[in-house]
Amino acid sequence: MDDRRRQIRKRLVSLTVVLDSKSGEVIGRIANLTTDGLMLSSDRALAIDRSYTLQIKLPDEVAGRTQIDLEVRSLWSQRAVDPTYYATGFEILNLSDADRHVIEVLMQDAIFQRWVS
Hints:
It is a single chain. The chain is mainly beta. It has one helix spanning 97-108; strands at 10-12, 17-20, 26-33, 37-42, 51-62, 65-79, 86-93, 112-114. A 6-stranded antiparallel β-barrel has the order 2-3-4-7-6-5. A two-stranded antiparallel sheet has the order 1-8. It is globular and about 35 Å long. The model is unreliable at 113-117 (pLDDT under 50).
């Protein structure tokens, strides 16, 4: 895996719930986020090289929105630092201008901290 990133990852301090939009099932929580991609923490491994439509419930209203829906593709999945969880990396596909704006506002907000690799 190429570990070079185009953007600094930001970690969401609150435990933001992420659902699979098609099934309505909670599939994890945001571990970090950029306008290019995100990492989820979940209690099970997720399939790699699979497309998902994710619904992210925002911890607070951001730019008039309480959730964003993202088309993503899973790139990798592995055990997390805490072996009872899995970490899965996704690239964001077809990001709308409105969703890009929400993510950019989130990345500038105090609820994010610099992600330390």
